Each structure stands twice: as C-alpha cells, then as structure tokens.
Amino acid sequence: xxxxxxxxxxxxxxxxxxxxxxxxxxxxxxxxxxxxxxxxxxxxxxxxxxxxxxxxxxxxxxxxxxxxxxxxxxxxxxxxxxxxxxxxxxxxxxxxxxxxxxxxxxxxxxxxxxxxxxxxxxxxxxxxxxxxxxxxxxxxxxxxxxx
Length: 147
Prior knowledge:
Distance between the termini: 86 Å
Largest sheet: 5 strands, antiparallel
Oligomer: single chain
Radius of gyration: 36 Å
Order of helices and strands: EEHEEE
Strand content: 25-35%
Number of strands: 5
Helix content: under 10%
C-alpha cells in the first residue's frame, strides 16, 4: 500500500526576508484519491502564515492538488497543497507498541457449580420504643424567629 505525504508550500517571513517554505502536514496510507480527499479537508481549514487577517479565501483544485488564494488587507498570498508518494524515509516512525495481553488465569474444571455463599443478614432487632410518628428533630429547632 502506498504512503502519501500531504505537503503545503507557503510564504514565510516578512518583507524582503520572505521565503517559499515546504511543510509536510501528515501522511495517508492508501490510494492517491484517498490522500487527495484528506488533503482537501486539510486545505479547507488550513490557517496560512500570511496574511494575519484574511478578508477572503478561495480554494482551487489543480491536477496535482489544490491552490489556496487568501486576500489580505494589503496584498494577496497563496499556498499550494500537493500529495506526493513517499519513496524513502531515513527515520521511519516506530510502530506503536502492542498493548500487553492480560495474563489469563487457568480455568478450574468443575462438574458442579455451587452458588456463592452470602453473609447472613443481621437481625433488625426490636422496633424502637420512641417510634410513634414523632419526629426525631422538632420543627422549631434551628429557627431564628423564636428568640
């Protein structure tokens, strides 16, 4: 299965120090069309370095990817989005570690299962003597207006 890089090219820096910069946004394992679909979603919500306060955004599809044109207050900037098949990586990502399998306890083979023992319920004892529909706390307790 092919591994596709999601690549954006944009202007970085200010004034005469502006340079054209390349960044890999991520990777997609699958077909080229699957990578283009993911790239389009990323391009639609991408926040470019320039301009700081965009007034208008336009996204165009090209043969190789997408072109994002962003109109700022003073000038218009653009970003190019492309998919490229990754052929080599000198530092490939390490595969994620497999989660440890829980140790299984050996099953005891029994022919007869006994229901678990329950603790005996305590004896409720005799009913309280004071239980004659009289509240334990009088209604006047805690009232401030009875001083």
